Amino acid sequence: YNIKTLILVYVEPFTGRNLSSFVDTIERSIQAYRIEANISFSEIKDVIDYISDLRSKDPSSALLDAGNGADFLFLSNNGTRHKGNIEILWMKFGWARRRGLPETLDTKTGQTEVLRLPSGIYLFEPAHFATFEYNNNIILLYEYNLYAPRTTRLCHYIAEFYKRMKTDPNLRVKIYPHRMFMKNVEELLRGYNIVKSIRIELEANNIKEIGRVLGESETVLESLSKMFKPSTMVLGWKSAPNGELEISIDDILNMFYDLEPYLKTFKVRVKKSVFGRSEEIDLKKSALTFRKRIKLARDEQGNLLRSTDTNDAVNVLIDTITEVLNQL
């Protein structure tokens, strides 16, 4: 054989320690948002302290009804950390629910039945958040969890409790998250000229906000949601086989920026020319995220839970701040 190049490959043994580390952790996407608000960072801190005080006296007073009497928002834990001279507020915030419960299995009888929760007990699906102020901007980092509330829910929760703290239910409070680092999305779409279809997927309890943004009838969308009671809704626009949607790339981008906080997916099928092949792009997955591994939480018996360990999650969020600031 005429061997001109010798390649050596070393494969590191997969030890039990490495396997344990992988099994005990989960990969999460850390998303960055800029908060637009008519209250200051110090006032947000005051609200969080107010909620924490309420929770310590009467935990149920920190529940916020999501509007259907079955799903509630709850701030279960919070605290303050520092990274250099940056003050960071961290939060463990989640859904508390009594509907959509899983089934239980009795291995003695083989019978299954819906999980029955005692009065006052809820399933809790949390995620971790960290917010801080930098150059007069309020930045929020979110540990994305499919089962947990989105950033819009946290902002709504803080706004509602700000009104309670001020004892003024009619107070106009604006707290809204804008996803950062969207350059990837714009670069992806700028090379295309023809839009064939749009398909967006969202949580059904966000349908009212979607109706307002799209200018569609809120009543119709809410009626459909109440009639079928879905957990997820899909809206779509599709052109004729040889046609195209009368919408520009700029319009697509503006729609995405307005809807992004409420969405699970935002899929666009586009073409570069009439004769080119079409491609499907999920804009929701295209914005810059910081992918990190976080330890899973354990119960008192050492069993792994679906949620992440709070201390490790907060440490990861704080460590990610450096990467976020480097992107600014």
Overview of this structure, please?
Helices cover 30% and strands 36% of the residues. With 328 residues, it is of the alpha+beta class. The strands form 3 sheets. Strands 1, 2, 3, 4, 7, 8, 9, 14 and 15 form a 9-stranded antiparallel β-sheet that branches. The protein has a 4-stranded antiparallel β-sheet with strand order 11-10-12-13. A hairpin with a 5-residue loop joins strand 2 and strand 3. The termini are far apart. The relative contact order is 0.17. Residues 1-6 and 9-17 have low confidence and may be disordered.
Features of this protein?
single chain, 328 residues, alpha+beta, nine-stranded antiparallel sheet, four-stranded antiparallel sheet, 15 strands, 30% helix, disordered N terminus
Secondary structure layout:
Elements: H1 16-23, E1 25-37, H2 41-57, E2 63-65, E3 71-83, E4 86-97, E5 103-106, E6 111-114, E7 123-134, E8 137-143, H3 151-165, E9 175-179, H4 183-189, E10 194-203, H5 207-214, H6 218-228, E11 232-238, H7 249-259, E12 263-271, E13 279-282, H8 283-286, E14 290-298, E15 304-308, H9 310-327
Helix pairs in contact: 2-3, 5-6
